[in-house]
Prior knowledge:
- By secondary structure, the protein is α/β, with parallel strands linked by helices.
- The chain has a 7-stranded parallel beta sheet with strand order 11-12-10-13-14-9-15, with helices on both faces. Strands 16-21-20-17-19-18 form a 6-stranded parallel beta sheet, with helices on both faces.
- Helix 10 crosses helix 28 and helix 12 (280-293) runs parallel beside helix 13 (311-324).
- The model is unreliable at 1-8, 152-161, 518-534, 669-683 and 730-739 (pLDDT under 50).
Amino acid sequence: MGLVPALEEPLKQPLKSVLGPATAKVMAEHLGLHTVGDLLHHYPRRYEERGQLTHLADLPMDEHVTVVAQVADARLHSFASARAPRGKGQRLEVTITDGSGRLQLVFFGNGVHKPHKELLPGTRAMFAGKVSVFNHRLQLAHPAYELLRGDGEETVENWAGALIPLYPATAKLESWKIGKAVQTVLPTAQDAVDPLPGALREGRGLLPLPEALLKVHRPHTKADIADARARLKWDEAFVLQVALARRRHADAQLPAVARTPAPDGLLTAFDARLPFTLTEGQRKVSQEIFDDLATEHPMHRLLQGEVGSGKTMVALRAMLAVVDAGGQAAMLAPTEVLAQQHHRSITEMMGELAEGGMLGGTEHATKVVLLTGSMGAAARRRALLDLATGEAGIVIGTHALIEDKVRFHDLGLVVVDEQHRFGVEQRDALRGKGKQPPHLLVMTATPIPRTVAMTVFGDLETSVLDQLPAGRSPIASHVVPAADKPHFLARAWERVREEVAGGHQAYVVCPRIGDEEDDPKKAARKKSPEDEAEKRPPLAVLDVADHLAKGPLQGLRVEVLHGRMHPDDKDAVMRRFAAGETDVLVATTVIEVGVNVPNATAMVIMDADRFGVSQLHQLRGRVGRGSAAGLCLLVTEMPEASAARQRLNAVASTLDGFELSRIDLEQRREGDVLGRAQSGARSSLRVLAVIEDEEVIAQAREEATKVVEADPELAHLPGLRTALDALLDDEREQYLEKG
């Protein structure tokens, strides 16, 4: 028994055995760090130089920050309050400066004594807390701080380097405490197993891993930091690309049935019916897809196209080609609303070609069935039977398609709509429905920069539709600063009335539904004082609809749509809106993808700062789908200088989704954009910035492909195998293969 721990790799040691249970618990819960290795790979966000100070002017709102600054002055005030009615309340205000900007710190009550003694003018310290705005000025309330004395054993030891590493921290654990923990485990860095093949490392002049870890945490010069980061970026890019290369390699070994459309079959009949000609882009992408379908390995293709670029048309032609070749095609949509819409629009586009087996259906026709979780038992049985017998060539549905009960006669193609909502398990479950793996076409309207496509969808070939079909109208977008200029908001509602008066319709989008409090679990959880003090809750559909119907939009026909409504009610609301029987639809983001009502020309997005850039772009794509110009108003109460406002200004200034996705990536961590936000797990990319490091990613992809072709099992590279296992453990497997 005694031998086991000795054999264990030092980097796999749990933190609680090294740092003590309390610190380890906070690290696990708030930063996702569990082992010594995790902590060594928790790199500093930036470095402060002892002689230099942070730019206080550039601090982000509502984020936990650590700054190094000097106390300019400190004043103790007394005030009367409910708790201390006789003017006995105490407030300490400390102003700190970095030479360029100033920041106010406030301490209250009994918390004033220690800082009052310690934070004397001229003192330098590190301060950590959450930046908020009070009386139009930035402030930190009750920040934690660590004095930088420059004397005494302890500080000299910890701040020995001229460069002070500042770590991504949380309210529960300040940067300097993380720094001390890192110092404790740093000696084990020498045992780190190097994942890069020796020849590659030397060929590219990269540091060995133990040296890179040492230099990233305890740099003596800026050159140390640059060398360390360059090396660590390569690790991340390379290990990720090896994982993807192995997946591509494995997929290329799979067999598939080649599907070539019959010369005068369903596809030809469909093309002949089309009232318009396909765009050049649609023709080119269709050809790429048909070429893939004709091979005996499964197609894995990602189809990217701006909102409204005609992806559904391309996907439908691919499905018809497969039906022509005797197979079946399945289209997976992320929501029931969307599945119903796709079903409706596809049967409309196909006309009598979708009436296979019925009187009036033409000779080439097939059946198009819908399969969702909320269908009645009889309708569901009929749909399942049509799939099993092969009577239905095309099925459109939600996750319900993946259930065990669903049997296909001969599944040849799977089309997944709005990719980032489907995990790899679901993709694989659907793949398992074919006699042999079906071909796969993944569609997304979120434009993805090339490097992100290489990183996240690295196991897919990419096609891009970049032209909009004729007849689409431009969308004007404006930010409405409701707090600074309330009359702008009043004008926004007037604009909605004007659109409706002109015979059009409008959407109002809100972040919340508004009946959440019924959830006993949520209500039972006591809110912490920080939560109470946080900004007001996001605006809710039910409240906003009520307010509009009684106030600014009185007299108009206002309806609501949200995810918790019964599917039949949702469908009824959408049908009424599509038929023009409703003037204004107040909805959550259920309308984000695929909803197509050409007569809707205006959209007002409430609390727009609560949405991501790509999401706003998606939402905005719901208007301007007809011949009349679209209008999108982004309502926010965030102050002008905030990062949120800059984000909204960016969305208002361009309709180019690829440009916006770059901005989105630069402003958030990659992981979030790549759909990480949905699963709440953190990005496995720590130093690699998908946008800036385009070069590294492209080179790593090349090297990875070579390595995997030479040695698919990585038998000769044990270090790389270990790193790969670590990357692919639990959740990260899904992160990678979300594709």
